[in-house]
Amino acid sequence: MELRACVALLRDVTRAIQHAHENGIIHRDVKPQNVMIDATGRAVVMDFGLARHVKESRRLTLSGIAIGTPSYMSPEHAQGSKGELDPRSDVYSLGAILFEILTGRPPFIGESPMQIMLATVQDDAPAPRSLNPDAPADLEAICLKAIEKEKERRYATAGEFADELERWLGGERVRARPPSPTARWVRKVGPGRGTALLAGAIVLVVAAAVVFSWERRVERRLEVSARLRVAAVLEEAERFEHARSEYSAALALDPANASARDGIDRCGRESERRSRARRHFDAAMLRFSAGEDAPAIEEFDAALRAFDRFGVAYHYRALAHERAGRTEEAAKDMERAAKAEPGNPVYRFELERLRKKAGR
Known about the structure:
By secondary structure, the protein is mostly helical. It has helices spanning 3-22, 61-64, 75-78, 87-103, 113-122, 128-131, 137-146, 158-169, 181-189, 191-199, 201-236, 240-253, 258-289, 293-306, 311-323, 327-340, 345-357, and strands at residues 25-26, 35-37, 43-45, 52-53.
C-alpha cells in the first residue's frame, strides 16, 4: 500500500480513537494488529479489551502493572502505576504506528518486552528519516511530536493529530516542527541542567551521576512492573508456584510493593489449597479403583471442600454415586463438573447420559 493511502487510513483510525475519547474511553492498546480493513476499504478499530474509562485512567489493571503492547506503549504507560494514562497515551500509540509506516519498524525495538519498555522510558526514538531518508520531512515532524516523551508536548487530542494528517494529505502546511538537536539534548537532561553542563566538566560529572541514578531507579521500577505482569499471567493460568516465584523476585527489588506481597500470600494459600485437594483426590481414586464407593466419596468430598472448582473430582464422585445406584445425585455432580470445566466435552456427554438415565 502506498504511503498516502496508509496515512489516510491512519487518519481515519485517529478519528475513530478521538470518537472513543469523546465518549470517555481510552483504548490503551492501539497497534496495527487492532486495525482491520473492511470490504469497503474503511479502517475499523478492534479489540477494546484493555480499554478504560477516562475517569479510571489513574488506576491500571492489576494494581499498576503495565498492560498493553510494548512496541506501541507510551512512556507513562510503560511505567505502570507511576504514570497516569489519558487520551495522549493513545496519541503516542498512533504516533508509533505512523513511525512504523515511515520506517517499517516501531520506534523502539529489543530482544524482550522489558528491553523495549526500558528504551521507551529512557531513550529518544530515532528520527524516521535517519532510518528512511525518503520519508517526508513534514510527516517526520508530525510523528516526532506525537511520540514525545513528555505527554504535554504531544498533540493534546487524537483529533489534533488527525487534523495534522489531514493537512499533510491536502498539501497544506503542517504545524509540527522538528525539535533542533540542541533542544532535544537540553530536554533530555533537563532545562536547568543543560545550561549548567555547558558551564563546566565538574557539573557534567554531577549531572551524569544524577542521570545514572535516575536510570537505575527507572530500570528497577520497570523490572518490578514486568515481573508483576508475568506473575499475574502465571497466576491467571493457575501456575501458582511459578507465579509466587515472580512475585518474590518483584518484592526483592521493591520491598514495599504491596501487590507483590499480596501476590505471594495469595499464591501460597491457593497452592496449599490445591495441594490439599489433590492429596484427597489421589486417596479417593485409590478407593474408587478398588470399588470402595463410600470411602471414595468421603475423600472426594474432602477434595471438593478444599477446592470447589475441581471438575475431575465431581466427575468421579458422580461415577461413584452412579455405581452405588444414586443416579439423580450422579447427574447433579456431573452438572457441577460441566460447570467447573465448561469446555470439557466428556463431562457434557456424561451429563446427557446421566440425565437420560435419571429420566429427566
